[in-house]
Amino acid sequence: MRNYRLLSTEKHCGNIDEWYQRPLGQQLFDDLKTQLDPLLTTTFGYYALQIGCTGHANRLLDSCRVRRKFSLGSENVSVDLQAYPALLPIANDSVDLVVLMHHLSNTTEPHAILREVSRVLIPEGKLIIVDFNPLSLWGLRYFFQSWLEQVPWRGHYYTARRLTDWMQLLGFDQQKHFRVGYMPPINRRSVIRRQSWLEKGLKNWLRFSAALNVLVFDKNISPMTPVRHRWVTRKLLPGKIARPNVGRGMKYDN
């Protein structure tokens, strides 16, 4: 009953950016940045694009070595590019890094968005998907509160296995899988401080139950080598016709 009161007294947020400014969101974002910084510091290129949670794009990608970084959204928010993510106004094979942060779980067209991401990424380009893990305490709370349509307990939580299957169908190779955040999903500072023992226990014994799944993929483009069929290279007649040696030197009647 006490836990229910703790959950019910939380103030609701309008979007995921506001939620990440709360105590629980700040701690989760700090853990996420700690995990991603070593990867982003070794990511180079000309253009990086973040879709979803655009209010934290500058802070999340500040360690990235890509020259130009853009945030994209369809709502009237402070973004660098305002467009529909399922129809990106970006040229083919032009982006080096794409970050999908809590966007697939809050859209009705995840497949269309992933196809667009595959189109705009360069060969060997990198895709990072950040989303909540349904196989966790966060997923359990989502199961009971998703009908309320409150941030972040709304949309659809996808398992890491399903996301990996989708990306493999598009020709992507999975490079890494991070699990971030083992704190209980209660947005109160007093509870966060007292539950450190639970966080350590989940991290040591139930590593699959992290709050976030962070999946890193590379766009794999296999070289197209034309295969010649044997019947194409064969000639209808050989270059020289052998003279028959049967009857050689024989006399013929005139």
Instruction: Please name the fourth-level CATH homologous superfamily.
Output: Vaccinia Virus protein VP39
Helix content: 25-40%
Rg for CA atoms: 28 Å
> What is the average per-residue confidence, as pLDDT, rounded to a whole number?
83
Description:
With 254 residues, this protein is of the alpha/beta class. The chain has one domain: 3-Layer(aba) Sandwich (Rossmann fold), CATH 3.40.50. It is built from ten helices and seven strands. Strands 3-2-1-4-5-7-6 form a seven-stranded mixed beta sheet, sandwiched between helices. The termini are far apart.
SSE layout and pairing:
Blueprint: H1 2-8, H2 16-19, H3 23-40, E1 44-51, H4 57-60, E2 65-73, E3 81-82, E4 95-101, H5 110-120, E5 121-132, H6 137-145, H7 160-169, E6 172-180, H8 189-194, H9 196-205, E7 212-219, H10 230-233
Parallel strand pairs: 1-2, 1-4, 2-3, 4-5
Antiparallel strand pairs: 5-7, 6-7
In short:
It contains 10 helices and 7 strands. The chain is of the alpha/beta class and 254 residues long. The protein has a single domain (22-220), classed as Vaccinia Virus protein VP39 (Rossmann fold), CATH 3.40.50.
Keywords:
254 residues; Rossmann fold; 7 strands; 22% strand; globular; disordered N terminus
